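Subject: sequence -> C-alpha cells, single chain

Hey, anyone have a minute? Need the predicted structure for the following. Not urgent.
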Amino acid sequence: MPDANTNFTRWATLELGGCDGGNLSAPLWICGLEWGGEMLSDTDIFNRKGDFFLKTGWAEEVNRQILIKKQKGECSLTPPSRWTYCRCASRFAWAFLSERPGSDWEKYYYTRELNNKKGYCGFDGGLLSLNLFPLSFPNFEHKQWSNKLEISTGFSKKCEYREWCEIHRFQALQELMKRNSPVILVCAGNDEKYRSYYLKAFGEHGVKTPCPVTRHMFMNTKRKQPGYEVCTFNTVVLGCTGYIIPFFGRGQLQGYKDIDCLAGKIRKDLTESGRTRLEGYWP
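Reply:
Had a minute. Here:
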C-alpha cells in the first residue's frame, strides 16, 4: 500500500475531514459510512464547504445557508429531501435526547435560526456526527477514481484509499472515542459488509480482531411491512454500547414513527441501566 499524501493524512485523521461535526463531549455519536452526493474530482477535497475541523462541520454550513434563504422567503421550513440522511439523523437525535418525539423537531434541525448551539451538530449539543470514510461519492459502491484524487490523496486506486482508512482513519476514530467517552454510538447501515467496517472501527478488540454482535428485531410501525434488524456490540469505550441500525433513508429507516420508536427504545435501555447523562443537551 502506498503512503498517503501528508495533507490528506492530516485532514483525514487529526482534523477528521468528512464529518458533519458537533460536540466532542456529546453523549450520542452517530456514524455513517461516507458523504453522499457528487464525487469530488474537480475540486480541492480539503476545502469543500470550508474548514472541516469538527467545530465547523458541513451540516452547520448547510443549515446556515438554508436559514438565510428562509429568512428571505426563498425556501420553506421543511428540510430538503436531498438531505434525507441528515434529516433522519436529526430526528433520531431529537427523539433520543429530548424525549419529545416530533415536538419542535424542525426548529432543532434549523437551530442556527435561534443562534442556539445545542441543535443538530451544535458545538454544545448532544450529538457528534461522524463518517467512517472521509471522501464523498455518489454511493458507497462507486468505483470511479480520478487523477486529481490520486494527486490529493497519494492513492492510485480507491481500494488503496479504503485499505489505508481501515488502518489509520479507524485508529483515529478509536482514539477520539476513548478520549471523549460517549454514552452511545449509533452506526447507520446494517448490511453485513457495512457492519464489518463499523466493528473494525469501533469494536472493543480494535481493528484486528472481529467483535461479536447481538441481533435484535424491531417491528415496523407499518404492519404490512417486515421488521428490521438492529445489532449491538461492545465498543472500545467501557460502558458505551454500539448500535448498528438500518441506513437512514434508501427505503430502510426513514419513517419518523420507526425512528422515534427505535430512539425511544434505546433511550429506555440506557435509562434502565443507569447510563443516561442526556439532560440539558437540547434547545
